[in-house]
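Design request, tokens follow.
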């Protein structure tokens, strides 16, 4: 539903739709991230290095999930030919366009796998396992779980991310900024619409195998046919929470204050609410199916997460990641109140981080045989890796944004997006 309250594309061009001096922090943030990553490996030698690797994987998949969510969101909007999201689409395009750069933050994981060290990914050398039955189970998966195929898949993930996130979505969008209206611009939009449909399928598959390789294979015995969609649900929660906070930050710096309205925040809130519910549904479905089937290879994953150390976090996730935000975000008033919505976004990002902590760190306890009863094994390396990869990720985002407009000024549907209004029922 359109009303006349929105600004025009001409006014948008005068609304300072650029990062300007904010983009100068990009190389600095990237440099800080690299230094912190290097410092982490220097500080965590010997026995501490194993715990550091688990922290690194935990935070790496956390930040990757936000950018993957941005890529999927942008593809979906092109497939649906949505107009409401055009004015806010450049930020997810920057996130998707910088996704390929996260390959370099993943190099330590590649080195770990190729080192043959079984203290993290045990499948890299199943001959070192004592339990013959477990060896046989993993041996049956050896056609997939082997170092060479892992390397190929890991590289291919980022090739796909580059082709769709940078070469297709962001590049075409930036070209339109300086193009006059006409057939050429319309053909470019149509080409992106056409390629986004197969791109959505391809990137869903890539996301699924990425989650399997980096998280699920930490326990090569365990398997779940729902883990890919579980990772997707969390990724979208992380993405929409991040979008709310990025636009609040931009508007506090005087960017897009008139272009991005309460109507757009309302839709962010609706999507966040929807994926909170979807995450709860998927989490319950995965648990219920594994509990009902009671197959040892499946139940072992939940067994360690239901001991005395992890039970409080499991209950906290149930209420903090689902019940509480469900009740909070169901209100239309909350979704249209920028400050309260931002509070909810911060809460969901923290819970999203804890969700990945819950997925990754118990495998450290399983592999090391850590004693039960010592509480949750939080470590300094968890915060160090959060800061290190966080700075690296944010630096990639700012460098990709650079001097480009932070709104797609040349998109044919920009005028309709600027006048977007939610229907009140």
């Amino acid at each position: 539903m359109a009303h006349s309250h929105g600004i025009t594309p001409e006014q948008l061009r005068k609304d300072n739709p650029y990062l300007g001096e904010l983009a100068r922090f990009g190389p600095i943030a990237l440099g800080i991230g690299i230094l912190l990553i290097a410092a982490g490996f220097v500080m965590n030698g010997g026995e501490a290095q194993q715990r550091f690797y688990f922290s690194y994987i935990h935070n790496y998949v956390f930040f990757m999930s936000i950018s993957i969510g941005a890529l999927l969101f942008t593809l979906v909007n092109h497939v649906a030919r949505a107009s409401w999201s055009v004015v806010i689409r450049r930020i997810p395009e920057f996130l998707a366009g910088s996704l390929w750069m996260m390959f370099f933050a993943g190099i330590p994981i590649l080195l770990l796998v190729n080192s043959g060290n079984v203290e993290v990914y045990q499948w890299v050398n199943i001959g070192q396992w004592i339990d013959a039955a477990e060896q046989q189970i993993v041996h049956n998966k050896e056609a997939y779980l082997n170092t060479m195929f892992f390397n190929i898949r890991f590289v291919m993930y980022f090739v796909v991310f580059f082709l769709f996130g940078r070469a297709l979505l962001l590049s075409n969008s930036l070209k339109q900024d300086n193009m006059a209206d006409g057939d050429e611009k319309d053909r470019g939009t149509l080409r992106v619409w056409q390629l986004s449909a197969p791109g959505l399928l391809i990137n869903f598959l890539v996301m699924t195998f990425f989650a399997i390789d980096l998280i699920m294979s930490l326990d090569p015995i365990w398997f779940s046919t729902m883990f890919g969609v579980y990772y997707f649900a969390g990724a979208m929660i992380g993405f929409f929470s991040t979008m709310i906070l990025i636009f609040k930050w931009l508007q506090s710096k005087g960017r897009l204050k008139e272009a991005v309205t309460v109507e757009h925040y309302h839709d962010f809130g609706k999507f966040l609410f929807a994926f909170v519910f979807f995450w709860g549904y998927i989490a319950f479905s995965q648990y219920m199916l594994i509990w009902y089937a009671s197959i040892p290879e499946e139940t072992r994953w939940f067994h360690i997460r239901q001991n005395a150390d992890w039970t409080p976090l499991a209950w906290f996730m149930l209420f903090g990641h689902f019940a509480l935000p469900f009740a909070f975000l169901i209100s239309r008033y909350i979704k249209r109140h920028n400050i309260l919505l931002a509070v909810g976004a911060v809460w969901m990002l923290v819970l999203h981080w804890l969700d990945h902590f819950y997925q990754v760190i118990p495998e450290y306890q399983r592999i090391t045989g850590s004693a039960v009863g010592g509480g949750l094994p939080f470590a300094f390396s968890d915060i160090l890796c959060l800061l290190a990869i966080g700075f690296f990720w944010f630096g990639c985002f700012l460098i990709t944004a650079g001097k480009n407009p932070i709104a797609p000024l040349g998109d044919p549907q920009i005028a309709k997006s600027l006048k977007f209004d939610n229907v009140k029922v």
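Comment from the thread starter after seeing the answer: thanks! Residues 48-80 form the longest helix (33 residues).
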